[in-house]
Amino acid sequence: CEDCGKSLIGECKLHGPLIRAKDRVIPSRARLTLPHYLTLRVLELRAGNQQILGVFAKKGIQKRTQFGPYVGQLSTKLTCYDESRLVLQVLKDGGKYFLDTPNEDCGNWMMFVRLARNQEEQTLVAYQHCGEVYFTTVKPIEPHTELKVWYAADYAKFMEASAVFIKEESDVSPLPPVAKDPVDPWICSSCGSTFATFALLESHQCIHKDRV
After folding, report:
1. What is the 3-state secondary structure (H, E, C) of 21-45?
2. Is residue 124 part of a domain?
3. How far apart, in whole angstroms, are the C-alpha atoms of residue 9 and residue 11?
4. Which of 51, 84, 113, 162 has the smallest number of CB atoms closer than 10 Å to its CB?
């Protein structure tokens, strides 16, 4: 105690306890990387004060807007599994690795993006490019809309997952499910190729336009 000049175990009985000043709480690395036009919202509070978060647009976002790369730790084993998030893997140096995010200081904001339960609510597509995973918008995103992602067709094959959505929410799993045949595929009128989504067909048709 600086007032009575004594070294005490515990608080001073004469002058009382010290006034404790707390450090400022610093957001995690993942939260600090969130773009200014996106925001996190708490969707559910589970046991142990566990927050289920979603990423929402604060303003309109154009179609074909790319986010990434996804930041995570390369691991041969997935240590952090969340049924509401996509399982992501990359091919590096001939090996297949998980992008693991055991905590918010090991990743960026993309770890908070939840998987889409059906094609109607999908706003992002996940794909691999040069050993990194990126998310790109597949349609314009209106303000206050949640960003939700699913695998691109080629990346779905790499992940041994389905590139086509199943309508029932209970049937959708972020773990690689059994691949299913495409339902009502989109057909290119120029060459007859089929695609699982309109976004993939539209991207393919750009090749024909470039050749013309």
Report:
1. CCCCCCCCHHHHCCCCCEEEEEEEE
2. yes
3. 7
4. 51
